[in-house]
User: What shape does this take?
Amino acid sequence: MIDIKNITKSFGDRQVLAGIDGSFKPGDTSLIIGGSGTGKSVLLKCMIGLIAPDTGEVLYDGRNFLTSDLNEQKAIRREMGVLFQGSALFDSKTVLENVRFPLDMLTEQSESEKVDRAQECLRRVGLENAGDRMPSEISGGMKKRVGIARAIVLNPKYLFCDEPNSGLDPLTSIKIDQLISEITDEYQITTVVITHDMNSMMEIGEQIMFLYEGKKLWQGDSSTLTKSGVNELNEFINANKLIREMEK
Amino acid sequence: MSRIGSYFLFLGTLFRNREKLSVYLGLILNECTSIGVGSIFIVALVNIFIGAVTCVQTAYNLTNPFVPKYIIALIVRDSSILELAPTLSCIVLAGKVGSNIASELGTMRITEQVDALEVMGINSSSYLILPKVIASVLMFPLLVIMAAFLAILGGYIAGTLAGVISAEEYVNGLRFDYKPFGVVFALIKTVVFAFLISTISAFQGYNVSGGALEVGAASTSAVTNSCIAIVAADFVLTQLLLT
Assistant: This one.
């Protein structure tokens, strides 16, 4: 369970996040949605400790990440997996080396255990034969899958995905969404996905948080998304022709 | 001034919360290959020609018949060991190694690879930069020793082929009034230059924000700032060690 309380963040005079509260449950794929520039990625970065918020708390199963000492933070970080928007694979390492990198750095496992675990994760994302290839030799969709494999290699309790579908064709996007959803169910991970992709919302969103101009305007079950009564959210989802037609 | 302050704070992050030493060993060896072996050709080429030019130009300017010809070799030797090999080689290395470090780290920053390390709880600055600094400090002196030797050899080849000095006179000049401290001085300078080039370039690259344009700008700043730091440190060290 991840709880965020009163997260605020400003860059200079511009307030990007204005007192965001919320909860993300284990086994659920929670989506943070909103238009461009509404603070979704900043909120994610505050949650994973890449940006320090001005105020607020981020609690991982009750442990306050922001006030923890360095060792506690490291322990919490080891329970996190992050899929970055651009996959963030290390260019100088092969696919297999990328996936086993967290094992090399953060565990004392034997060489064979690391290779087996990395191969297992690659198999889970359907890339068991791509281990020897360099990131520059694989497609965008494959990079995302490698990113997912790297994110789950340490058996995380919390999985964060920043725009997992950006730059992908619709078919590949659906496959990535399904993979994230399956992994969440399989490992009972608390998954938080940042997206503005309507297909993702319909496909994998179980809990949805809507941000608008740095404020949380709505959070709820995906089945109640179209009945929120929030004008800004309705405008956002009705921008998609498919949703408009479904509503009719 | 705030930029200089940030640079010193950045240096502190290289040595705090380091990873296991075994992690660095492999990385340092890789960097030694990339920084050291990868720079041999350019450093060798530049220094052979610099030695050759120094020899021919000194001969051209030495018109007084009372000055013995072996002085040409002495000038080539001292200028190569004291100044040309360490300083000029390091300026060349600032262009090659410095820009490489800045663009590599800058690209890692804008493609979120640095963030990926941070979220794993790895001290990204120490993991990425410390091996480069150590490899530079280890490899630059070796390159400079080779550079000084090749500059003197370049002078010998050019001088004898152009007929401005005989082989015997050149060797006599190399042996005349030799002060071994010159080599120590050159190596001290090189270690300082290596540290400055690697850390300044890393600082520029690591703190990039934006896109490809900013990475290019950081790479340019890395080279120009490194060159400025080299000449300033050169003056300070010469004052301190040779006077």
Observations:
- The two ends of chain B are 30 Å apart (CA to CA).
